[in-house]
Specification:
It is built from 13 helices and 15 strands. By secondary structure, the protein is of the alpha/beta class. It starts with 10 loop residues before the first strand and ends in a 5-residue tail after the last strand.
Length: 433
């Protein structure tokens, strides 16, 4: 691109640092899944026990020599570290190994680049990549010098490195400007949904927890779903009709991962705003994953980072088909509100329980009561019957109709406003026999 580095390939050695600090510990199994998702042909996984890191290589010089010999013997084109490398460490390791070196952030960015499909997603990936690359520009090329003596040999006043940095800054500004427009368009769409009083639900969770499979099962969509990390990158919104509640907007979002680099969260803020502005978060959890508690903590940490940690959350324990003896069911808190739903999105087990739990949690959007309709509103009465909202009907001595109805408030307001009436003016509080 803008700088000279060794070429990369698919034959890779994975280097995992096993430290003692649980706050920075990475999962080697997840690391291998990331590499496979990126398309790497894993030659070996080298585990380096390390409690203290070196400034030059991150690892010790003896391990560097050992890895160099392994790279030469296996003809490896790429070495991937399951850790964040500084730009200088990355360059030093590339000189020592004589091949391309990638850290955890670069690996995630490569997967994102492969998964991006929409224009917005590609812009977000490019912004994250440029922010990452900008700190890794190496020496300027020699064909552009700052100054040279003699006619016809005077340079443009900046080295190639400075030119590259300037071009990067210009491109980053352009992308941020475009993403600001995307953010503005999304905000306008959200305001339109709020005016129409349509609730929004966002699926969040650790990557590969089954969000897209659940999304497809609920909305009968064909969003790409696969047993790989970051199968979904671009957000997808679909309408979902729930009994009692009516239409809601369901959003499928990018999965989270432990120690998600901060610059990625910033680059994908336009997408993650779908979660931070939702009326309800559905946190999809892989019930079969041994590290599920740690994954839940990581998801909650990212939600806090994007300002979505105060929103109501319904936990969904997915992949029940991989567990023995646990039927689909709803767990409730001490007040009887739905707290967790156990289901299998792949087999379609427990989906009706999830819809029931969502409807209960969004119950504030539901009207259940008695309407007092004068004879002049016979047309409105017919519309309530046509909508299937009437639970019971009575008539008083004056001929006024008493309708016991149950329907979304947005639908009630829509029907009533056509007749120019305010619903509060003729709502009875008692129930019909």
């Amino acid at each position: 691109m803008f700088f000279e580095r060794p070429g990369g390939g698919e034959r890779a050695i994975l280097v995992h640092l096993e430290g003692q600090d649980p706050e920075v510990r990475e999962d080697p199994q997840e690391f291998q899944e990331l590499a496979r998702s990126a398309g790497a042909d894993m030659v070996a996984l080298v585990v380096v026990p390390r409690q203290q890191f070196t400034a030059k290589y991150l690892i010790g010089s003896g391990k560097v020599d050992e890895l160099h010999d392994l790279v030469r013997a296996e003809q490896v084109e790429l070495v991937i570290f399951n850790h964040t490398l500084t730009p200088s460490q990355e360059r030093n390791l590339e000189r020592a190994f004589e091949c391309r070196v990638l850290d955890r952030t670069g690996l995630i960015l490569d997967i994102f680049a492969q998964r991006a499909r929409t224009h917005e997603g590609k812009l977000q990936v490019e912004l994250a990549q440029l922010n990452h690359v900008s700190t890794r520009l190496v020496r300027g090329w020699t064909h552009l010098e700052r100054q040279k003596g003699g006619i016809g040999l005077r340079g443009p006043g900046e080295t190639q490195l400075e030119t590259d940095r300037r071009l990067l800054r210009v491109r980053i500004r352009q992308i941020k400007h475009r993403l600001d427009k995307v953010r503005s368009q999304r905000e306008q769409a959200r305001r339109g949904r709020k005016r129409a009083e349509i609730p929004s639900i966002s699926l969040v969770g650790y990557t590969n927890a089954g969000k897209s499979t659940l999304f497809n099962a609920l909305t009968t969509s064909d969003v790409y779903a696969a047993n790989q990390l970051f199968a979904t990158l671009d957000p997808t919104l679909r309408r979902l009709d729930l009994s009692d509640i009516g239409p809601v907007v369901l959003a499928d979002t990018v999965g989270f991962i432990r120690h998600l680099p901060h610059k990625l969260v910033e680059a994908f803020r336009a997408t993650l705003e779908e979660s931070s502005n939702a009326d309800l978060l559905v946190h999809v959890i892989d019930a079969h994953e041994p590290e599920r508690d740690a994954q839940v903590e990581q998801v909650l940490a990212v939600l806090a980072e994007i300002g979505a940690d105060q929103l109501p959350i319904l936990e969904v324990y997915n992949k029940l088909d991989l567990l023995d003896g646990i039927p689909p069911h709803i767990q409730r808190d001490a007040e009887g509100n739905p707290e967790r739903v156990w289901l299998s999105a792949r087999d379609g087990l427990g989906l009706e329980l999830l819809e029931q739990a969502i409807a209960e949690l969004l119950g504030d959007n539901l009207f259940a009561g008695v309407l007092r309709l004068p004879q002049t509103l016979a047309k409105l009465r017919a519309q309530f019957f046509e909508a299937g909202a009437v639970q019971a009907e009575e008539h008083d001595e004056s001929g006024t109709t008493l309708l016991s109805v149950r329907l979304p408030r947005v639908e009630l307001n829509r029907l009533v406003s056509r007749e120019g009436w305010e619903p509060d003016a003729f709502i009875e509080q008692h129930t019909l026999q």
